[in-house]
Design brief:
245 residues; mainly alpha; 3-stranded antiparallel β-sheet; 9 helices; 3 strands; elongated
Length: 245
Amino acid sequence: MRERGAAMTCPSCGTENSVLNLRCSACGAFIRDRVPAIDLFSALWGMIERPAATLLRYARSEQKNYVHLLFALTGPLLVAVLLSVLRAGDRDMAFGYVLLSVVLFGPFAGLILFSMVSWLAAAGLRVFLGLRLGYRLAAGYVAYASAPLMWASVIILPLQLGVFGITLFSSNPAAWSLQPVPFWLLAGLDGVALLWTVLLMPLGLRAHGIPYGRGFLLPLLTVPPLVLLCAVAGWALLPLFPKTL
């Protein structure tokens, strides 16, 4: 059995098949091993070591599991960024309430927002590339490619909250002015996580015959809508945070 890009040659009859096929479309022979489910920790390590192979394994898996868990784990980072943009620390909001909002509402926000943009991405890929992925497959590519953001949410964000406290969400004083070195170091790691996520997303589409360059349509269909949805949520929540006089 040989794999060439999005095609795989059947060892029995020599027919080329999609790399996602379990059986040969011509003779019915098995051309690859079944993948009943994904092991989460192996997949997360695989997104560092062999991201393209890991995303292909997800595409071949039958259960398509852990997608919404990854969305939920990434959510606190979204809520923290939103509260920082809203300057919740300047709006008479105690740090305990900010922390509670990040911990309690973050997973729900991540689950809802990432699910919405995954559905939009699946629809956009169908319109612009003629690629019919379906929600589960598109959501999986988004979720596992967003693993760097998830790590930023569960590792870097707690460090930022512990080091900067309420100043992370205020402008007077601002965290970057009080502790510039740790602030820009951790913010830089967040930026690297976002860039890494954008670079990983096109890899999943290679299994469907989409070149890496054209695959950047997936992050274009995901990241801007996610930012827009966060902005709309911030605008809707703004009246709940009266500014301190």
